[in-house]
What does this fold into?
Amino acid sequence: MKVKVNSIGPQFGESLVTGGAGFIGSHLVDRLIQEGHQVKVVDNLSSGNLSNLDNSNKNNIQFFKKDLKDFNEKDDLMRDVETVFHMAANPEVRIGFQNPEISFNENILNTFKLLETIRKYDIQNFVFASSSTVYGEPKVIPTSENYAPLLPISPYGASKLACEALISSYCYNYGINGTICRFANIVGQRSNHGVIFDFIKKLQNNNQELEVLGDGTQSKSYMHIQDCIDGFIFCASNKKERVKIFNMGNIDVTDVLSIASIVMKAMNLENVKIKTTGGIDGGRGWKGDVKQMHLDISKLKGLGWHPEISSNNSVKIAASEILSDINSTTN
It folds into this structure.
């Protein structure tokens, strides 16, 4: 698969990636090391896996098993770091309704701890992986970065928005260059949660029937991980403003029933009965699920970048990659 690649260049210096053993974080680490950067990876391995870093050049990487809540000004691991990529977060939107404290502790509190350490070490660049969930249910779709008001409908979305506010205040008060990327649904190799992964696991347990949460018409943008990393680097390289906010999604959308069809085809399954749960609040999969989301990426396109792979093709490629991941761990 060929995707457009932007050279990182020297501007990031030595980098630290929180959550660097996770899905998106590990692909970012691969890319940074591929470009010759020295990278420090911090991950508590609650959802990440050290095997995700197996492809990285071990001479250019230092790994620290550490929780962000334990960060303080005495952490020598921050020494010589010029850029922090903050990818660490609890990745499950669904669990917020049952236990909103997780989003507060893992996202808001940990981001505050990290920012406090960064300002004491006078680190210049901070890049944050935010989420489309900060928009809640916007009345304008596709939704641009300047849409308001931002009214998240999940604790996860609220926590990401709170993190954005904290980051903005620290950037303006302490001279940090901030980049915030609001991700759509990112899919691909090493992903261990989300609709594609869930469908595969369900069909492996029962290849006769597939349960679909909600009414199946939920429609969202899906981006392949390689496009995501390419765009993420592009955004982080743009330093024209103190704090830059970019939508990171695809030019199109797909729905849950289409994803189910793609996954079944990838698994060579036919005549599978689709059973929709009907969902809640008008067909949502769970409390806090945004039923329709399509990010407007005109800002990025205006700067000369756009994704190479459509939503449906991203899902197709990701289904094959996730199946390969699962099979390699079970064989």
The two ends are 26 Å apart (CA to CA). Residues 1-6 have pLDDT under 50 and may be disordered.
